[in-house]
Amino acid sequence: MTARADFIAGNTRLRARLPALLAPFDYDQLAGLSRDAAAERLATSTYRRYLNRDQAGGSLLDAVARRLRDQLRGVRGLYGGIAGTAVGVLLARHDLHDTLALLRGARTGQPAADRLDAVMGVGALDQRSAADIAAAPDGTTAVIRLAAHRLPDPLTARALPPAWERYELTGDPDELETTIAAAAIDGWTDRLEWVGRAARPILELIQAECDRANLLAVLRDPAPQPPRLLPAGLIPVPALLAARRGDPQPAAATRPGWRQPLERHLHDGDLIALGWDLDVDLWRQAVRGLRRGDPLGADVPVGYVLAVECEARTIRLLLAGTAPAHDVRDLLV
């Protein structure tokens, strides 16, 4: 029998961090400002210590990235035992992103510094390991180093060499990255199912993110056969294909919050807007769980991690003048 996951101490510490997140007033003040004016406004908030490090070009977006890293680093360490295993999956999402970014940089010959800049380093793949992998002269060496470090996790590390061998035969980067992502997600699912009911909010997040990625991939690809997909969340492939044919009902029956975004997509065909709307639904659920879910369970780390990810993405979009602020305010903690 699996011991009970204890989230209480970690949740208490995470809740103490919530006041540091931006509030609706902060977003309203940023909307429509120039980059210089936005920097001045952010300098009066909790972003101040990040902006004061330098004022060189691009420092505003660098400050957003540094703050996001600081908010996420250490989250795993707040939880011990079985709860820590579950919370580790939240940060493993970034480990997967970092792994794919390092491999992409290696196989396309990007400078090592650029590869390292793309790394979050908030989970198992830390900055020291990332620097070693980023210095690899080619993709083969990067794969060898990832496997040697057992990154992003031991299971996925074992899947890397055969996936790379297949890539060398086919030259298909989408197949390479989907294969690696699928191996990671299968491992996460196994871990969360081992934890049991206590990890349900994290498993639901992973399933929703898989469904989102798969839906957008199917809608983007006009070929009769579905493209390479991640492990299914709750929406089966036939429902995804029905959405591509113009029938959102099967997908919406599984995920009711996606009905309106899918219906809008039928009229405007805007995949970027659809992706944002699906993210909004996911973020709203996470924040709702943080506010009203089980204060002693995994709703709190899920809500916190998504809240800080949402803040960083939203600030970037506001700085670019592209964020739909009327949606943004509804997401805030």
From TrEMBL:
Pfam families: vATP-synt_AC39. InterPro entries: ATPase_csu/dsu_sf (IPR036079), ATPase_V0-cplx_csu/dsu (IPR002843), V-type_ATPase_csu/dsu (IPR035067), V-type_ATPase_csu/dsu_dom_3 (IPR044911). Keywords: Ion transport, Transport. GO terms for molecular function: proton-transporting ATPase activity, rotational mechanism. Belongs to the V-ATPase V0D/AC39 subunit family. This is Vacuolar-type H+-ATPase subunit C/Vma6. The lineage of its organism: Bacteria, Bacillati, Actinomycetota, Actinomycetes, Propionibacteriales.
